[in-house]
Design a protein that fits this description.
Number of helices: 1
Largest sheet: 3 strands, antiparallel
Order of helices and strands: EEEEEH
Length: 83
């Protein structure tokens, strides 16, 4: 488990939880975002996840795969229906 931050909360995905002009507000997976090689993550967001880093607390939109990755990285349990 990484020690560079922690999860504050996990909620069902809602674009209203995300700032304007963000992947989450557009209904995209912000955790995977967009890369040159992959393009935009093709999976729809399942959850909104608020993370805490040193002085920064972003809300990320996360598809099911991203939620699993966040769970493994930060060590929080994910709801059984998304496992």
């Amino acid at each position: 488990m990484a020690s560079d931050g922690h999860v504050i909360w996990v909620k069902p995905f809602d674009p209203a939880n995300h700032g304007s002009d963000t992947a989450g507000r557009r209904g995209e997976c912000g955790w995977h975002g967009q890369t040159e090689k992959r393009g935009t993550c093709a999976d729809k967001p399942f959850a909104s996840v608020k993370l805490q880093y040193a002085g920064y607390a972003p809300v990320q939109s996360a598809c099911i795969r991203a939620l699993r990755e966040i769970s493994q990285r930060y060590g929080f349990p994910i709801p059984p229906e998304s496992a």
